[in-house]
Amino acid sequence: MSRLMVSISGLRGEIGSTLTPEVIVRYTQAFAKYVNGGKVVLGRDSRVSGPFIAELVRGTLVASGCQVVDIDIVPTPTVQLEIEHHQAAGGIAITASHNPIQWNGLKFMGADGRFLPPAAAEQVYRLADQNEKQLQTWDKLGNVVFDDRAIERHIKKVLSISFIDVEAIKKRRFKVAVDTVNGAGGRIIPQLLETLGCQVIAINQEANGRFAHTPEPLPENLIQLCEAVRENQADLGFAVDPDVDRCAIVDNEGNPIGEEYTLAIAAKLVFSKQLGRMVVNMSTSRASEDIARYYNSMFVRSKVGEINVAEKMKEIDALIGGEGNGGVILPEVHLGRDAPVAVALTLQALLEHGGTMKELKASLPQYEMVKKKVSIEGLNPDEIIERLKEKYKDQEINTLDGLKIDFDDRWVHLRKSNTEPIMRVIAEAPTLKEAEELADRFMKEITQK
After folding, report:
1. Is the pTM of this model over 0.85?
2. Helix 76-85 and helix 150-159: axis angle, to 10°?
3. For the Alpha-D-phosphohexomutase alpha/beta/alpha domain, which residue ranges apply (predicted)?
């Protein structure tokens, strides 16, 4: 049986084992108490298990005195935007993000439209552990209203981004293939592209939750999209995950450019127009850092996790930020990862570059990244980190989130898992061979006694 995963990203579990009706109700009651019975925006991705979970969440919120604004199947970033629009006390997105079909979960957001910061999330989880609730009498029950214009408002917000020229993109008439993996993206990405004058080749567009392939937008899962780009001689292809906060790009020859480059392309476009600050997490490619430094812009790294990036962005008033998993955060729209924003910025960048998507990628700093994990069963992860920190003390060291060691043209980031006895090893270097060698070297160093 899988574990119930509880983190700053919310909770996730497998339907029929760990994410049970009892768990869903308990955590929803805790969140209702946290927002003190206030207005809550509720949205979900297209997972097959979504409808029954939505019924449980809606009913529990109403029983707790909350007014529920139900916006149905929408991207997670749409829920964030709608919290602001409705001036709600918070929001819940029913999604397991990129996890396989048997998973679902709850993502909790505050009145600012962002995921709960760590301390607030811990408060909600503590209330859930203690089975805290504030159920109301018949005369103080909440109610449900339905709003079907959330996606329309999201698209309008994207089209108003100051860095894009909608009319110029329309004139270019890009031919774009898009794979929304039968997730919530089918409700917004093709529509956004058509509004931008693109000729759209959509695959896996029906938002029925029966994912056509493994839903995480990694290169190995983009085979259908790559074929669609080649067969239709498209200018590029976009793939999004089921809740539409991550975006991956396929070039005009049908090759994935790597999800790290979604953020790099957006950063280059934004900084070419306005100087500012940028925040990414510790595992994000140096390509974005090189671009920010080229434009003499302040560049800061945060702990891994969208809320950690967003909090640091708010703190330093960043112009752009995100995570290297295809997650672009543009505060002009809102402080959260947003695939529709990434799509619009990419089209503007390609328009201004004037060449092909392959040529645009080639114009950026070139790095290759590998992500591995190694068993540390029976070993103390903190002792491992301290040992390697001492060994590499002459290099640039960062211990904000695990251990990151920067060398001249490459780096390695080591993070212990909070749920299993493994250590994650992320390495980046100018070539794939060098990145593999760096990761393998540290995997051996981690396990040596």
Report:
1. yes
2. 90
3. 9-133, 154-254, 261-365
